């Protein structure tokens, strides 16, 4: 079985398991579906297509967009859309691939000239809206975290903050 995790540290405690195989530098292409079960995954490694099969369970953890994409190219998703793009339908699940939102991030790091109250940093996120939607379209997250900018080595440490 192949698992793709956001953080390798989540995987380290179970790397010794005999029922787990980790393949790195590979790209999952589609799931192997047999009836109502996922039996494995087809992936590319060094330009060659390979398959991995699960004995018991397959875990799909390719992130929000990657998981939806793998499901859809494997025939799981909104049937009309899958047929329209030439994918054989294995399961009609209209919610797959719906309501996905991009979350662009711009980080701005700065050093405060004086200590900032922790209460300010730990307040709930500040949200802004253009008024065109009932949902905020900009969310500011304040983080109190140490950071060193390029060229700052050797300077006296200040009180760093980041705004994302």
UniProtKB/TrEMBL annotation:
Glucose-methanol-choline oxidoreductase N-terminal domain segment(s): 9-105
Required co-factors: FAD
Superkingdom to which the source organism belongs: Bacteria
Keywords, comma-separated and alphabetical: FAD, Flavoprotein
Presence of the UniProt keyword Flavoprotein in the record: yes
Flavoprotein in keyword set: yes
Pfam families the UniProt entry points to: GMC_oxred_N
Sample GO molecular function, one term: flavin adenine dinucleotide binding
Transmembrane segments: none
Similarity field: Belongs to the GMC oxidoreductase family.
Protein name per UniProt: GMC family oxidoreductase N-terminal domain-containing protein
Organism: Streptomyces malaysiensis subsp. samsunensis
């Amino acid at each position: 079985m192949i698992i793709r995790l956001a953080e390798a540290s989540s995987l380290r405690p179970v790397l010794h398991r005999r029922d787990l195989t980790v393949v790195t530098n590979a790209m999952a292409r589609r799931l192997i579906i047999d009836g109502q079960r996922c039996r494995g995954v087809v992936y590319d490694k060094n330009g060659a297509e390979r398959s991995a099969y699960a004995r018991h369970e397959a875990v799909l953890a390719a992130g929000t967009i990657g998981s939806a994409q793998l499901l859809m190219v494997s025939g799981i998703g909104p049937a009309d859309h899958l047929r329209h793009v030439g994918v054989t339908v294995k399961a009609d699940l209209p919610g797959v691939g719906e309501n996905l939102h991009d979350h662009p991030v711009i980080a701005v790091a700065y050093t405060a000239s004086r200590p900032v109250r922790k209460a300010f940093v730990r307040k709930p996120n500040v949200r802004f809206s253009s008024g065109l939607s009932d949902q905020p379209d900009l969310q500011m997250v304040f983080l109190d975290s140490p950071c060193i900018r390029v060229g700052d080595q050797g300077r006296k440490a200040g009180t760093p903050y980041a705004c994302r």
